[in-house]
Amino acid sequence: MSHPIPHLINGRRTDGGTRTQPVYNPATGAVSGQVQLADALTVDAAIASAQAAFPAWRNTPPLKRARVMSQFKVLLEQHAEAICALITAEHGKVLADSLGELQRGIENVEYASYVTELLKGEHSRNVGPGIDSWSEHQALGVTAGITPFNFPAMVPLWMWPMAVACGNTFVLKPSERDPSSALYIAELALQAGLPPGVLNVVNGDKEAVDVLLTDPRVKAVSFVGSTPIAEYIYATGCQHGKRVQALGGAKNHAVVMPDADIGNAVSALMGAAYGSCGERCMAIPLVVAVGDTTADAVIAGLSAEIAKMKVGPGTEASCDMGPLVTQAHFEKVRGYVDQGVNEGATLVVDGRSLKVPGHEAGYFLGPCLFDHVKPGMRIYQEEIFGPVLGVVRVQTLQEAMDLIDAHEYGNGTCIFTRDGEAARFFTDHIQVGMVGVNVPLPVPVAYHSFGGWKRSLFGDLHAYGPDAVRFYTKRKTITQRWPSAGVREGAVFSFPSSR
Amino acid sequence: MSHPIPHLINGRRTDGGTRTQPVYNPATGAVSGQVQLADALTVDAAIASAQAAFPAWRNTPPLKRARVMSQFKVLLEQHAEAICALITAEHGKVLADSLGELQRGIENVEYASYVTELLKGEHSRNVGPGIDSWSEHQALGVTAGITPFNFPAMVPLWMWPMAVACGNTFVLKPSERDPSSALYIAELALQAGLPPGVLNVVNGDKEAVDVLLTDPRVKAVSFVGSTPIAEYIYATGCQHGKRVQALGGAKNHAVVMPDADIGNAVSALMGAAYGSCGERCMAIPLVVAVGDTTADAVIAGLSAEIAKMKVGPGTEASCDMGPLVTQAHFEKVRGYVDQGVNEGATLVVDGRSLKVPGHEAGYFLGPCLFDHVKPGMRIYQEEIFGPVLGVVRVQTLQEAMDLIDAHEYGNGTCIFTRDGEAARFFTDHIQVGMVGVNVPLPVPVAYHSFGGWKRSLFGDLHAYGPDAVRFYTKRKTITQRWPSAGVREGAVFSFPSSR
Amino acid sequence: MSHPIPHLINGRRTDGGTRTQPVYNPATGAVSGQVQLADALTVDAAIASAQAAFPAWRNTPPLKRARVMSQFKVLLEQHAEAICALITAEHGKVLADSLGELQRGIENVEYASYVTELLKGEHSRNVGPGIDSWSEHQALGVTAGITPFNFPAMVPLWMWPMAVACGNTFVLKPSERDPSSALYIAELALQAGLPPGVLNVVNGDKEAVDVLLTDPRVKAVSFVGSTPIAEYIYATGCQHGKRVQALGGAKNHAVVMPDADIGNAVSALMGAAYGSCGERCMAIPLVVAVGDTTADAVIAGLSAEIAKMKVGPGTEASCDMGPLVTQAHFEKVRGYVDQGVNEGATLVVDGRSLKVPGHEAGYFLGPCLFDHVKPGMRIYQEEIFGPVLGVVRVQTLQEAMDLIDAHEYGNGTCIFTRDGEAARFFTDHIQVGMVGVNVPLPVPVAYHSFGGWKRSLFGDLHAYGPDAVRFYTKRKTITQRWPSAGVREGAVFSFPSSR
Amino acid sequence: MSHPIPHLINGRRTDGGTRTQPVYNPATGAVSGQVQLADALTVDAAIASAQAAFPAWRNTPPLKRARVMSQFKVLLEQHAEAICALITAEHGKVLADSLGELQRGIENVEYASYVTELLKGEHSRNVGPGIDSWSEHQALGVTAGITPFNFPAMVPLWMWPMAVACGNTFVLKPSERDPSSALYIAELALQAGLPPGVLNVVNGDKEAVDVLLTDPRVKAVSFVGSTPIAEYIYATGCQHGKRVQALGGAKNHAVVMPDADIGNAVSALMGAAYGSCGERCMAIPLVVAVGDTTADAVIAGLSAEIAKMKVGPGTEASCDMGPLVTQAHFEKVRGYVDQGVNEGATLVVDGRSLKVPGHEAGYFLGPCLFDHVKPGMRIYQEEIFGPVLGVVRVQTLQEAMDLIDAHEYGNGTCIFTRDGEAARFFTDHIQVGMVGVNVPLPVPVAYHSFGGWKRSLFGDLHAYGPDAVRFYTKRKTITQRWPSAGVREGAVFSFPSSR
């Protein structure tokens, strides 16, 4: 039996649109809900609600807006269990991963609560004789976010808390594959004191997206998803005069140097490659081992660790990895493994035959490990978004860096080394936006900003952190002088004080 | 019956010292407690506790320290009623004032919880070829605060939350006249997760202060109080090599221009002059009226408002103003009123004969209003710290500004006008640190900093806000280059990966 | 006789393209030069030159890049006369205006020379235990600028000095109507030490622009011009994945309040309306007078001032206003005046019949002043870019603000008043990016940023100032930890020091 | 024949005081000048001049002040040869060192010229409903600097350019041992457009210093010198209510790890130990070698390099090191070498018998190298300020760090290693303000700030860079609201516009 999943408009759960789409539990294959797919009218209502809420919210002092965020944070902590259950039920990831995701989201809420500090403009006395000038960061109006399935709770929290803390109102379109946690969270925000209409949630697909991209009331769009869609979002939103930041795909390489602490690196790579089933834009699907000795040690270490992994439903605490998100995605990922074998890579660990007893209809794929992956292969070039790790062998760091720089994506990367010089050279020159040194998933903390380079991000400002403040506000610069000193010089003593 | 008020050392209420001093309820004159006065040994124990707690706390990631502050803020809100009761019982101010004070304190805790953002250093790649440089703001070690009776809850919260959020440990010596709220609050901080020893409270007098000023383990001292003591604190602490910020007295002037909204100004001045019985370093004890028409209107307005005021115990919700803090202070303030009459000022409203039925032993003085106060008089020159407002008459804004600039204090001031030019000229040129335009008590919000000029503050960094981060940290600047590229260039391929 | 105006590629004047276009002296109508119009091959060569120069320039320490800017500034000051002569010869504005323009440009060079300070990233120690994180603002690669005829020297200096100071290389396409000053200035930059290829200039039209918008080597495009082109630039550049900032047209309103210093306002409006013949995106073509008394006084004042104006060749020091830029533009502007009359506005001063003796072939139009301009009229709605000022009459400030907010453009605006509240309400709420209070042309100083709202700017980051640093750099965030303490703990004492 | 060296007061060379003191050429022992020692009257005149110049200078827009600095920088570059000749003639350092010193000073002038950017305050709209608040960094008034002999040109340039760029006026008291370059430089500043009285130079000794420390017109004092004097300056200045930053002595340790690039380290240490004859507060007089193998290699490397050094007059381009500054200092340093031998350290290289032919009366001491220096020894504990380098042998990095942290000084330190973890642990935990990683003299660049910890600096704000802006300004915080909307709401339509 599946329940309907509606929209949240002007503070209420609202039905809208005539189409629906099933939401599955990926651990069982069962349909758990029917998400409504917003039509243009529904999205229009959400935008109208946001537009109507804007003037009052924009005039609410930042400190009051910040306090709603503080209170919201408290509620998120109190309801963490319920939220994580929703994430795991619809996305499949293990509960520990859901909690990790939520925790990251909470940190973004926390950062949004610093907005009094973050909104400070720059003030200059005497830019000329008797002339002062200052800047303000004012709210844009209605803003929108379109978010992916892989972090159904966190990515929305990258966006709307800062947007609304800055005085904007917001329309969120979460992924239609796992929409429930975002909706639940939005209702907590209302409970925390966010006025109705400040945050609206519309479920939907391209039809809804296209309204958000073209409606002139929407001033800014944030997107996280795959690169082809990111490009479409960026081109279409910009064509309609909006500011857009669109984060796309990734193929993050981890370089392991000969002097690395291999045990450490292997342990770090396990989580980075197979955590959340590899469905992360900051996952590590490729290891570039410098030297064959290094490669052999890495392969050996990974194989041993993989042997210990337990795959099963995300709700079981003993499981390390859950199912993939949908049947279609499962088949796509398994197809990549087949493809890798065909292309000549060595499949060291083959997870294709995995069966999870009692969950035969779940979308489970065991961890896969390839050796001898090469740049020409599709498993090297394309984003797989599954539990498939490939090892590429090179002879020098320069060779490794050339590979990374030649790849179309530039989201994250990391280097494992003990050597200060190697790390410094790598971090300075690599054409990637987020770089780790012995940190496999260099996701910036909430008080820094998230963003890749090359075809991993379209736009100029990164997600969350300081850049988000700039993205969700427009600069106003005031220049002020006052005319001759009538009142000051006493010419108006007779001025009626009763005025 | 009076209870003992001990110290808080290493997370526990601790007795210390052989001397005690009574704490009074100023609304009744009754003794409510006996505060222990710390001897050198007791202060030494507090410093030792702080010193011992420092290394672990300093190494705790800033985000974790920030979370203790967030949790502490929640507890302060939950226990607001109990805290305000303690403030009013020992200080006498009406409960609404106590709540206002606490609220301001909570905002400082809130700001301290942004410490991850506030501690960011500056990073420069390539200050020279291959050389990077960055700065960090590291904790000092043991820091100390010495706070006054007039804001027993708020002023400590100006200091220690930011100090500990920055990674320092702290010894607080609150006023011995109303120490209970600070102690209560400190215990809430422990409950919020502050490790024992990170915050210690010692009650005491000059004996305790002198240990804090001379012990080499104490790296920084913050003080708020009167100017003579501030000077002593600054000179003594600096002589012992510490960094010191010492905030002293005030005599804040409000200028009323002929074009001001007089009704508005009068209403604002009532609170600024008589709120908390005038026992505020940001109170307005002097109005400078520009033009006699203005002066007459201000006097008339104030007189009418004063007639409506109700003075009585702070616990009664209908009261606008409570008693003075102690019998001695009551006598000092009343003496100033006598003095003003003798000096020739016109006592328009005389509050000296006030009786509060049922509270005959309380330290109640009715609001007093002088006209024709002149610069030579002691009631013009000295800080009275009571419900005594004086009006000075001048003919031009320049005359008003000359008066203000000639006064030894420069804490706060304000101007009432509608005229942009007058306000701009005033704010630019006046020799005062905190300036209001139609704002009678221009106390900066928690995300700006608090501090006067001239003899109202000794030191260079102001209290709370951004300056507090700089005060409670020391700058470390690192310059880094790495030697030739052994590992990177592959010279060490044979390096054992098992290392 | 007219000379050829080529390109500047890889440090040398270079011919390119087969098409040319005449450049006129607008004061005489004579052809002064033939500007070459770059074909795709020529633009490709410029981009290739910039691409080749990038790696070395990017690795040059910021302080060295800053010093080139300092030296360049000195050269600009030394060659000011020659530059201004070129501006006036091709654009027509009076020499004093040319000098003013150049001076503003120099201030942008000055700001670019602060780049060591401006490039500082944020450093956080202990984002987790033993983990540090910091951000860097790294150069993008090849960047491009497309600039308008009206500030042929200044607008290029808004762009490329900061772009190259940040480590980028640049291709500039100045206006083909007055290209010589930008070319001259670029050569001064070479002389100041800018390596060949770091700055390239291509002259041309849409053919050249389209290459810049679509070539994948160009990472960012800055544009200033009219709104339709700005929209095209933004849509096309973004469609090709670039970051784009595109500044468009304007129709700036000046509000005159009844309490304004009218003499002051009139004097300010004269320059704002007729300076540079109104060919400025920050010009004031509309006055909104609040109250008929105000309107009458403004009209009277302006009429009297206009009567004193002298129009003639920009090279004559006694002239206040020169010719329009081209014959076509002259006709367009004169057409608007005809149109205004037809639409029913009152033409108070008619400059259409102006003759400048000895310069009969010049593109001179006398100052025009309309009263009773109304929102429905084309002269209200459209950007005229000529010496045509219209007065709109309203009854309240709210009415004035509603007009401004309803207009498609939101570049600049100003209010003339003495009243603090009116100014504050206006600056807070008006939907315009640059706001003046008694300042008619609120162009931000070089250390703030320039940008309008609504259809006056497409993108999120403004031009020059702090926003330009963010626009011309991409954020890189590094997260770093180091593995177990082998070397520190002495395990490697036997490590060969000869390594 | 020696010339008189007077003061510079109110823009003119001025005689003052009855006492004089000879200035020597340390390479020859000859007297080159007679510096006048200011009496109280002379210092008073300088302060009065600064006080008189303050109001106009403070009101000069920051951009104009910045331009004086830019122009001054150009003049410094043009007159570099003359300035370096003066430095070398009176201090003795080789010309290359003089040029290096001047270059660093010029970078501080450069940074001061960014003052428009650096003075920006923080602006917050809506701190409450309709209330705005912002901060300004206003000038202090008269400020003073007292500078040491070892960098006679650079240290004054750390101070006064930023002080005056911030709008202050200044009284400089350079070292009486080598005063001429500071005086020469001050005159260049006048030539660059600094108004008379904004910068004054008084030569003198304690008599002059004491006036600067006690005169109430002097608001801030910066000092660089030895620790006992720094303590005196800090205590005395603070006792008189001033803000003071007093930088004292140093004993900087360089740690050499077993994995360091020894050749690199040795080469770096040569300059750090013997450059400018060791008369630098950032010199390295102590090497802490981790492991005896390391120590042996360092000793061997240094001995070999020392053998190649040439000592002689600073004016000879072939010389690596010049004389000590005075005969007295020469004897003091030589005494330390004797002392080291007596204390049991091994004198590996003995420079005591050095003779420079033709300069027998010069104060030349050859480079000295000790091995087996131990913490108890005076040559370990005290600042020698001469060409004497000692090697301490330890077995672990922890041992090295414990030594450094136990030392009374904490100015600079560095570590030579290739290992990221060792460097990170060292930079995080070491109790020293300026830390180098493979950088022997980690003097921060001009856009960072300079300052040690422990007894190397008294005060809270460091020298030059961002901290200097805060030190040389006082924060003013304005809070502004405007009364009811009379003008805006049209109530004053009849208001006379002629007002």
TrEMBL record, chains A, B, C, D:
Residues 1-21 are annotated as: Disordered. Its EC number is 1.2.1.-. Residues 18-478 form the Aldehyde dehydrogenase domain. Signal peptide: none annotated. It comes from the Bacteria. The keyword Oxidoreductase applies. The keyword Zinc does not apply. Keywords: Oxidoreductase. It is an enzyme of class 1 (oxidoreductase). InterPro entries: Ald_DH/histidinol_DH (IPR016161), Ald_DH_C (IPR016163), Ald_DH_N (IPR016162), Aldehyde_DH_dom (IPR015590), MeMal-semiAld_DH (IPR010061). One of its GO terms (molecular function) is oxidoreductase activity. This is CoA-acylating methylmalonate-semialdehyde dehydrogenase. It comes from Hydrogenophaga defluvii.
